[in-house]
């Protein structure tokens, strides 16, 4: 048998790569948390979202003759000096190529990237082994919860209110207090609001008691509940459950969306309990790994 050939891909291979990733990412044994499992969505992301380092300079492919057997790449964010590793995705008969693919990918990492992250399913032994072999450190364990349209509780769905100008500052304060080091601060969330990105809130005693921020992408049949929080003064009153039930109903008002997926830290048992009370169920568990490429001075 001939040895696989590693090569840097050309732009015309994007659809083939997207199909390969979509197929493998639909299986727990080769699942990577942030890569998606729909060819169109993956293809669109590769072409439009890999801006700091384009696809041609960020991905490595392995072929056996003319058959694609392995893919790995990264999504760089120069502002955060980090990159998310996509893969390794390898054909079932060529698991040994994962290490070679990873080694080749490392040669492509720009000096501006100081940290790599991986987000494999617990059952993805290839990615977990690769992370261990390359000295990644496990940072956390995450739970993936899902709800499908036919699982929605249709009785007593609360009506939520879109965030008003009057309560914007309260929402910003609660968000920044609850999530001080996350990827969007309160002001950035406000700036992102549009037709498919909404902040809903729950009012009690004329105060903002809780909020929820959600994004939908009907063209890709996707929705993300990015953040939600309840003011500590109003906790224990089922406000979180009410927010979730209401926003899930809004999400499913888009006929293109049949399923919602959420990612929650596995140690946050209270949040998982709230999601499950709202009708979500546990689907997958993943590991979050990081590797420092440069030793801090």
Brief digest:
The chain has helices at residues 14-25, 39-48, 55-58, 97-106, 125-133, 168-178, 186-192, 239-251, 269-277, and strands spanning 5-7, 59-64, 67-77, 82-90, 115-118, 137-148, 161-162, 197-204, 207-217, 222-230, 259-265, 281-292. With 297 residues, it is of the alpha+beta class. It is elongated, with a radius of gyration of 21 Å.
Helix vs. strand class: alpha+beta
Low-pLDDT segments: none
Distance between the termini: 48 Å
Quickly count the helices.
Answer: 9
Total strands: the figure is 12
Q: Which percent bin holds the helix content? A: 25-40%
Give the overall average pLDDT: 90
Compute the gyration radius: what is it?
Answer: 21 Å
> Outline, from the CA principal axes?
elongated
Can you walk me through this structure?
This protein has 297 residues and is an alpha+beta fold. It has two domains: 5-135, Gcn5-related N-acetyltransferase (GNAT) (Aminopeptidase), CATH 3.40.630; 146-284, Aminopeptidase (3-Layer(aba) Sandwich), CATH 3.40.630.30. Helix content is 29%, strand content 32%. The protein contains nine helices and twelve strands. It has helices at 14-25, 39-48, 55-58, 97-106, 125-133, 168-178, 186-192, 239-251, 269-277, and strands at 5-7, 59-64, 67-77, 82-90, 115-118, 137-148, 161-162, 197-204, 207-217, 222-230, 259-265, 281-292. An eight-stranded mixed beta sheet has the order 1-2-3-4-5-12-6-11. A hairpin with a 4-residue loop joins strand 3 and strand 4. Helix 1 (14-25) packs across helix 2 and helix 6 packs across helix 7 (186-192). It starts with a strand and ends in a 5-residue tail after the last strand.
